[in-house]
């Protein structure tokens, strides 16, 4: 048997094997588009969703991120992309963040300070 025939038979059997596998359907949460379970982002979101909330320091330790990266994640991903409402409060001089319970949409709309013309 020549090498050309071996290559063709190997390629055709690999293609046939790929065609017989059923496509896997994954259930995707639309709010967590690219967040994989066990990822750093999902860990931080889980910390924020706990009733006690999380501090910047705790999020830094859980992810290995620097302080400015945690703040950027809170502003860019949690607030803007996921549109979750964050609460922050001071407890014993330490700022604690958590996702507000209830509706995650923005409660108040901004009004323009301009006079209508």
Low-confidence stretches: 21-30
Helix/strand order: HHEHHEE
Radius of gyration: 24 Å
Average of pLDDT:
77
Ends apart, CA distance between termini: 86 Å
Count of helical regions: 4
Q: Characterize the main sheet.
A: 3 strands, antiparallel
Briefly note the structural class of the backbone: alpha+beta
User: Could you say which overall geometry the principal axes of the C-alpha atoms support?
Assistant: extended
The main sheet orders its strands as 1-3-2
Strand content: 5-15%
What is the share of helical residues? 40-55%
Write down how many β-strands occur, each being a DSSP E stretch of 2 or more residues.
Answer: 3
Describe this structure in words.
The protein has 117 residues and is of the alpha+beta class. Helices cover 44% and strands 12% of the residues. It contains four helices and three strands. A three-stranded antiparallel beta sheet has the order 1-3-2. A hairpin with a 2-residue loop joins strand 2 and strand 3. The longest helix is centred in the first third of the chain and has 18 residues, at 3-20. The radius of gyration is 24 Å and the shape is extended. It starts with a helix and ends in an 18-residue tail after the last strand. The model is unreliable at 21-30 (pLDDT under 50).
């Amino acid at each position: 048997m020549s090498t050309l025939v071996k290559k063709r038979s190997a390629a055709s059997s690999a293609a046939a094997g790929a065609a017989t596998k059923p496509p896997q359907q994954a259930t995707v949460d639309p709010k967590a588009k690219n967040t994989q379970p066990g990822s750093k982002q999902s860990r931080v979101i889980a910390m924020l969703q706990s009733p006690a909330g999380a501090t910047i320091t705790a999020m830094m330790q859980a992810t290995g991120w620097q302080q400015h990266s945690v703040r950027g994640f809170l502003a860019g991903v949690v607030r803007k992309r996921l549109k979750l409402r964050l609460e922050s409060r001071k407890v014993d001089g330490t700022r604690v963040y958590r996702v507000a319970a209830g509706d995650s949409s923005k409660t108040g709309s901004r009004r323009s300070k301009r006079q209508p013309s």
